[in-house]
Amino acid sequence: MVQSQQPLLVAVYPGQPPAVVAEAAHLAAAMNCPLVCAYANPTRYPVTESLDGSVDSAPLDPDFMDDDGDTFPVKLAARLGKQLDPLHVQWRALLLAGDAAAALARCAEIIHPSMIVIGTSTDNHSPLHKILSRSVAVKLARAQRCSVLVVPVHHAAQAQDGQ
What we know:
By secondary structure, this protein is an alpha/beta fold. The protein is 37% helix and 24% strand. The protein has helices at 19-31, 74-84, 100-111, 128-134, 136-143, 154-162; strands spanning 8-11, 35-41, 44-49, 55-59, 91-97, 115-119, 147-151.
């Protein structure tokens, strides 16, 4: 089977419920396309962007020295590898910078994914208008030309809270 050249873009972050990446991996396998796991570091801003979607960045606060801020989080990469490698899905980690919605939107303009996969917020205690006003998924859905799949992860968080 020939692999699609358009990747599937999935937003990832440390502590994220695994359901988002699992759904993205399932879709990537079904669509026979590569998976791009993108993490946007909110403490940095992009300086330059490359054709592969990666960015060179600088810290928002020049007085705060973050030696690891310009690399993909090691523990997150290890967790992704542990989850994705057994599935035999072609994937790569991609480090972005800044606001997650803006960074993912810029990345999508560059790599032209077939779809963006993102999870819902696990915050169940905020009023709906607060959740929607800061929702990365809502911001992306309004701005993107490609489909945005929102994976409901708040149910998993509720189940963990109830245990």
